[in-house]
């Protein structure tokens, strides 16, 4: 019963995620952030259609086709704090600063990505409309 | 006989059965470099350690008395009433018995001596830390290993238990067995301690590492040895 209630809550939480900034995301900048393993970090875990980055991770599903599978609001929820969907996820919460332990001084109190960067990444992910190569 | 062995193996928990050293995940060339003492750069530190040992330590110790020591460290240190790792033990010897200034953590002198002493245990199995006085540190190490940390909010478990064998960008995630330390890491272009490795994993998730020599590292090492008990010591190993 409690599980059912939780399942019902998740879709409404997703729909709540309004854009973080007034400026629409820029897919070109978003691609650069995703490709950069010290900014987006995405390719440490995911693979994606970014052929110039040779070493891509396989700890997570490929990003290919993300724009077919998810809406902007769903992607935003996943990036801002995906642990609201799956508390055990290894995917970092990109826009959350509370509840963390022993964060290095240089990053303390700062989210992994800024609000506009998250909007840029979402804009890029929405352009990924082909399923991963098999 | 063989069948009993197979049954015994089946009865072990999965983690004990398929434990693998980071050695097995390496490229063939890197494995060859570790295997051949003439090619293994870590042997340069072992040779330096041998010289230092023969100069500074043989008034009280023999080479033969160092065999097997690394396999049972960290151990309980009576003098401080706390667990001590092998490098700490060697420093303490310099300070207490030789009455000289102890070498700093990660200094060339201490790495060389530690590599030399640990090399005397190459091929021997890591022993399980069963001294009851180590139990609190073992529990602390287990807790540290399971704790999420840093801006990326990841625990050692999430990488080394849940995702071992998968790729984090270009690197295969090993099972984190501390079998080869101090070891030569290609990325460091030099020899480094287990503490240096652990700091790398901590700063990798953007967390604040503990200071060199901190009790937390000794606790983690005791826990890692408990996990790796029975696996063979490889010092000086080579890693990517």
TrEMBL record, chain B:
Q: Which residues form the active site?
A: 201 (cysteine persulfide intermediate)
Q: Which residues bind substrate?
A: 197
**Any binding details for the cofactor?**
Binds 2 heme groups per subunit.
Name the catalysed reactions: L-cysteinyl-[SoxY protein] + thiosulfate + 2 Fe(III)-[cytochrome c] = S-sulfosulfanyl-L-cysteinyl-[SoxY protein] + 2 Fe(II)-[cytochrome c] + 2 H(+); S-sulfanyl-L-cysteinyl-[SoxY protein] + thiosulfate + 2 Fe(III)-[cytochrome c] = S-(2-sulfodisulfanyl)-L-cysteinyl-[SoxY protein] + 2 Fe(II)-[cytochrome c] + 2 H(+)
Q: Where is the Cytochrome c domain?
A: 53-126, 140-233
Q: Which NCBIfam families match?
A: thiosulf_SoxA
Its family remark reads:
Belongs to the SoxA family.
- Under what name is this protein listed? L-cysteine S-thiosulfotransferase subunit SoxA
Q: Which source organism?
A: Falsiroseomonas algicola
